Amino acid sequence: MSFIKISLILLVATTAFSCSDKQEQPQQNSADHQPATVLQESSSSNDPDAKVFEKIQTFYTNYIFGDEFANDSVIVKYCTKNLAQELSKAYDAEFSDDGGYAVWKFRSDAQDGEDIHEVEKIEPLGNGKYLIHYNDMGNKGTHTITIVQQDGEIFFDKLN
Questions:
Q1: Residues 6 or more apart whose Cβ sits within 8 Å of residue 142
Q2: Which terminus of the chain has fewer Cβ atoms in its 10 Å neighbourhood, N or C?
Q3: CA end-to-end distance (rounded Å), the chain
Q4: Confidence band for 45, pLDDT divided at 50, 70 and 90
Q5: Whole-angstrom Cα distance, residue 97 to residue 24?
Q6: Tens digit of pLDDT for each residue in 50-98?
């Protein structure tokens, strides 16, 4: 009888232990979906356009279509003082709490729609201007971002 109890306990413990070793596979919903973004081809990673594409894509993925908050340190990293002031004024005109940035200006005006948020294409237009084609909740749109370089870093300077 004692042998059966010990065997049964070992069987249960072994089963429980083997099940706990399996790592749960995260569910990937379309909001976490990394888009298959079509960017202009660049010949090398030192290509200035490639660095701009990466900066725009990262900003949209994390702060425009993602869940990360575009606080002061993020805006300082991505925007010139002029664009930061413009986004701050637009935010203050919309809300009374003084202290944010109107990053929604990088998106469409969509409030509802499909669960699609992605940059589809970035086109260099010349003179530091880039046309961003995006899909925002099933609403396709474009914005032109003008970039400048300051101390070797890329910043967004204008948004049209």
A1: 131, 132, 133, 134
A2: N
A3: 81
A4: low
A5: 41
A6: 999 999 999 999 999 999 999 999 999 999 999 999 999 999 988 877 6
Which whole-number Å values give the CA distances from 125 to 12, 69, 91, 130, 145, in the listed order? Answer: 66, 29, 28, 5, 10
| Separation CA 140–CA 150 (nearest Å) | 31
Question: What distance in Å separates the CA atoms of residue 121 and residue 134, rounded to the nearest whole number?
Answer: 7
Domain edges within the chain: 36-159
Tokens of 108: 């469409």
- For domain 36-159, the CATH architecture is Roll (3.10)
Specify burial of residue 146 (Cβ count, 10 A radius: 0-12, 13-18, 19+).
Answer: middle
